Amino acid sequence: MRISARADYAVRAVAQLAAQAVDEPVSAELIAAEQDIPHRFLEGILTALRRAGIIISQRGARGGHRLARPASEITVADVIRAVDGPLVWVRDARPSDLEFTGAAAPLLQVWVALRANVRAVLESVTVADLAAGRLPSLITSLTEDDAAWTQP
After folding, report:
1. Which of 111, 114, 80 has the alpha carbon at shortest distance from 98?
2. CA-to-CA distance for 13 and 36, rounded, in angstroms?
3. What is the pTM of this model?
């Protein structure tokens, strides 16, 4: 599975907003600087996040961006879906919309299982978890195995 730069930057930007001590709008420039995200690229990401209802944007001298709802109610999956669409695609289709025959028929269950596991991980982590630096035990247990950190 590949996480796009757009998805990575979006999650980092939303985590930055969640980490703010006060509920004041944060400028795109500050988010870009704090998270080392190209500003022009970030602007497009912020637009997608606003359209998805994850952030609210405010214009003016005291303008900027803030979360549209509590960070504890926004999952990493929500953010990725907002900027990249569904979490798992196979040939530009949802796994549940595919059909395989013959020896490849069981492959459909593999793709659906992959989607279920990706969802289990990304829907269990909230933006509040990231901002607080604490992750659910499901995540920490998966990363305790040294093999998780290496590419076979």
Report:
1. 111
2. 10
3. 0.90
All residues at 6 or more sequence positions from 37 whose CB lies less than 8 Å from its CB, including other chains: 9, 12, 13, 31, 45
In angstroms, the first-to-last Cα distance of the chain is 14
Q: Is 77 exposed, middle or buried (0-12, 13-18, 19+ CB in 10 A)?
A: buried
Instruction: List, in order of start, the domains of the chain with CATH numbers.
Output: 5-149 (1.10.10.10)
The per-residue pLDDT for range 92-119, each reduced to its tens digit, is 888 888 888 999 999 999 999 999 999 9
Count of residues making up the chain: 152
38-77 pLDDT, tens per residue? Answer: 999 999 999 999 999 999 998 887 789 999 999 999 999 9
